[in-house]
Amino acid sequence: MPITVSTLHQMKQRGEKFAVLTAYDAAFAQLIDEAGVEVLLVGDSLGMVVQGRESTIPVTMDEMVYHTSLVSRAAGNALVMADMPFMSYATTELALANAARLMKEGGAQMVKLEGGAPRLEAVRAMTENGIPVCAHLGLLPQSVHKVGGYRVQGRDDAAAEQMVADAVALEQTGADIMLLECVPRALAKRITESLTIPVIGIGAGVDTDAQVLVLYDMLGITPGKRPSFSHDFLAESGSIAAAIKAYAVQVKAGSFPTAQHGFD
């Protein structure tokens, strides 16, 4: 059965975890789909792991549409979510036009954008126009130059309260899913329990409704240092297909991530 936004909401209501992985091409998309992963995220992380860039910022809309089209062609049951790249949603008009491209030309079934309160107008407009939205809080890779690097977010009380308020406001405005990146476990748990929409975590502990990793990180093939919240599933599985299956099984069982893959 094809996975829809409603499917993911029902899984949250039942307390059933789901798995998300990034995908950038048809071959990997098919493997991930066959492993039972519910959501394929066409991440702007492709700028770093596919293109070899230092950040996600240079990734263009044309590149995102192209990679999304490759993934959507091969996706069977999984829902395809596509990142909106840097400055592609700076205004409501831009957000609507670019989200429409990802869906019409790329075949995405949901788009993801970074940020809290400043994104409410764009989220509302997209929701009112039938575009499913995943909101992204915590570490925002597109803002890496503004915040001074890749670091855990929400550790002080003021930042934590602001993140909770942003999460609630985004849900009320129409966001269908929330993604939390690199936030303390306790804060991620609090936000997950505060929302009725599913919460996907990455470096956010085991208490979120779902987990996502960058495909190349969980296969141990990302050049340079792998993020501490990731795990090399390929090293212990023997094949790419088995590694992806192991990831999906462990996420759904709640055995990944462990304490070593999160932050206090």
Tags for this model:
about 260 residues; alpha/beta; TIM Barrel; 8 strands; about 40% helix
Q: What's the overall geometry? A: globular
CATH architecture grouping: Alpha-Beta Barrel
Query: What is the CATH topology classification name?
Result: TIM Barrel
Q: How many strands in all?
A: 8
CATH superfamily: Phosphoenolpyruvate-binding domains
Secondary-structure element pattern, one letter each: HEHEHHEHEHEHHEHEEHH
- Structural category is alpha/beta
Please outline the major beta sheet: 8 strands, parallel, barrel
Report the uncertain regions: none
End-to-end C-alpha gap: 38 Å
Query: How are the strands of the largest sheet arranged?
Result: 1-2-3-4-5-6-7-8
Q: How much strand content do the residues show?
A: 5-15%
What is the CATH class? Alpha Beta
Rg of Cα set = 17 Å
The helical percent reads 40-55%
Describe the SSE topology:
Layout: H1 5-14, E1 18-22, H2 26-34, E2 39-42, H3 46-49, H4 61-74, E3 79-83, H5 92-104, E4 110-114, H6 120-128, E5 133-138, H7 144-147, H8 157-173, E6 177-181, H9 185-194, E7 199-202, E8 210-213, H10 215-218, H11 240-253
Parallel strand pairs: 1-2, 1-8, 2-3, 3-4, 4-5, 5-6, 6-7, 7-8
